[in-house]
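On clarity, I found the account of how folds are encoded harder to follow than it need be. For illustration, here is how one protein appears when written out as sequence plus C-alpha cells.
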Amino acid sequence: MRCDCAIVPKKPGDRVKTDRRDALKLARSHRFGDLTAVWVPDEGSEALRDLVWTREAAKQDQLRARHRLTKFLLRTGRRPPLGVKAWTERHAEWLQQVR
C-alpha cells in the first residue's frame, strides 16, 4: 500500500539506502520544494499533550468504573430511589448507604 503523504518522495525502484544518497535526495527535494514542513513540539507542548492524554484516560477509567458499579447494583437488585438522577450528589449519598 502506497502512502501519498510521504515526507521524502521516492522513486518506485529506488531501494538502495545510503547516507550519501539520502543526503543528495534531501538536498534536491529541498531545492524543489518537495519536502513537507513538520513542527517539532517543545517540552511545554509535550507536557501539555501528556496532561491532556492522561486526563482523557482518567475520564475513560471513571466512566468504565461507573458502568461496572451500575451494572453490579442492577444485578443485585439495588436501584436508587425515584427522582434520584445518576451520579449526582444525592446519588452519591444513596451509594454511601448501600450495603
